[in-house]
Amino acid sequence: MAIDIEDLAKRRGFFWRSSELYGGISGFYDYAHLGFMVKKKWENQWRNFFIRLDENYYEIQPCQTMTEEVFQASGHLASFVDPIAKCKKCGFSERADHILEDRLHETFEGISSEDILKLIKKHNIRCSKCKGELSEVGELNLMFPVKVGTGKDARQCYLSPETAQGAYVNFLQEFHILRRKLPLGLAIIGKAFRNEISPRNALIRMREFTQAELQIFFDPDTINEHPKFDEIKNTKLRLFLVKNRGQNKIMEMPAIEVVEKIKIPKFYVYHLAKIQEFYTNIMEIPPEKFRFRELSEEERAFYNKYHFDIELDIPDIGFKEVAGLHYRTDHDLAGHEKISKQSQNINIEGKKFIPHVLEISMGVDRNVFAILSMFCDEEKTTVEINEQNDSDRIVLRFPRRISTFDSGIFPLLKKQGLDEKAKQVKNMLSDEGFSVFYDEAGSIGRRYRRIDEIGVPLGITIDHQTLEDSTVTIRDRDTMKQVRVEIKNLVSKLRNYFKGESL
Ligand code: GAP
């Protein structure tokens, strides 16, 4: 049994249910101080990695309240629906495909309402609240409607269920300002809203959440090429193909073979390789806990031609989607052209066309939750400080890049000048850009335990020897190894450590 992440998150200050003072509402969570730090660091790593894939990629920040026409154009108004099963006895509604998943341990995304009802009847699945009969399966649109303005001027709007539409409605203006070049990338890190029928698993299925999405606008005639394809052609991609689902088999296939044997275009495969690099190198996810899940035609979102989801193996949950790579063709821009009656054609050297879109879409909260769960470890240990007995050590072994604080600073005692010296060291490190946590309460052993549990990689202790020879002890969270370092060398020691060196 893995550690209860929601409990740890609440106890230590990562996240908790929103408006708890009034009982909370399912699917809404507030980030507390530590969770917000990890989230910001995750987002910055995402920016650093994906926006730098090309010099013509930029970040924008559009509004997420958008007019009804936007979602007519995108198809969300008609098609962004989930199946719901209703209990005849108590009236309780549940997400119908999830009821089947829970009971039959298979995925049922994309299955029709009639087929769901047949399976419910066949397996005699009853209401989870009152065991009544589930007699109806209908559909519910997941968007939150908002009326903006008052009286006859009020306008029907929706909270956007994805950040992507903000990039599409801004594409033409950005294209013209940015010297009419393709590919053009517009990245957005922003909120998305979905009235999920059954929010669950904390940050995994929420009603208000953050997405990090990159929309890459490109010429469809160039889909079979990518100028940097050779750099990744031998990268072995971890694929969970539709045809291998029965055997539950993940294949490792070099990128070039994915192009040649599975016939997926180079432009798409290049981005698969980059996404895998982001997860395994930057986020340090062990490769065996990462896979690309190919979606069948029925499972794909209504706008996608090629679609692989990125799944991570999360303790107590199993492989779960945290992101997707979507080839959306010209679905959205053509839709906006039709509804707005404004041409979305561009003209490059006499060639007129609507660009196609490749979308890298990631749920930030889902990734943060996955990382918290996957790096949380509980070990039996003999503690290094004699004031504590043997006990379990909970350690968040976060990658250094996305740890909460970079280090904790601890005066051995809060007197005899040790506290003043510790604050001087803290200020010196803060001035150099490190995020530092100061703690003078309790035994050193307990203080180490506390930073282990919140994922801080280094503990720096100021003791009596510090006053004599200007050295401090640095203790590594993962190895619990301690080294003595001169204060004058501390900044460079930390810099090297955060570049990947060991202590
Ligand atoms: N723009 C495409 C899009 O929104 P999606 O598969 O619906 O595609 C992308 O969502 C990602 O957003 C998912 O892979 C997941 O990480 C995250 N996501 C989707 N629904 C979510 C929810 N209700 N709560 C938290 N994250 C969610």
Spell out the key features of this protein.
globular; 503 residues; alpha+beta; binds glycyl-adenosine-5'-phosphate; Rossmann fold; 5-stranded mixed sheet; BirA Bifunctional Protein, domain 2; 9-stranded mixed sheet
- Helix and strand composition category: alpha+beta
Q: In CATH, what is the homologous superfamily of the largest domain?
A: Bira Bifunctional Protein, Domain 2
User: Under the CATH scheme, which class of the largest domain?
Assistant: Alpha Beta
Shape verdict:
globular
Q: How many domain modules?
A: 3
Distance between the termini: 32 Å
- Main pleated-sheet profile: 9 strands, mixed
SS element count, helices: 16
Bound molecules: glycyl-adenosine-5'-phosphate
Mean pLDDT: 94
Based on the structure, what is the oligomeric state of the protein chains? single chain
| Number of strand segments | 26
Percent helix among the residues?
A: 25-40%
Question: At CATH's second level, what is the architecture of the largest domain?
Answer: 2-Layer Sandwich
CATH topology grouping of the largest domain: BirA Bifunctional Protein, domain 2
* Cα gyration radius (Å): 26 Å
Task: Tell me the fraction of residues in β-strands, as a range.
Answer: 25-35%
Describe the strand arrangement of the main beta sheet, using strand numbers. 3-10-11-19-16-15-14-12-13
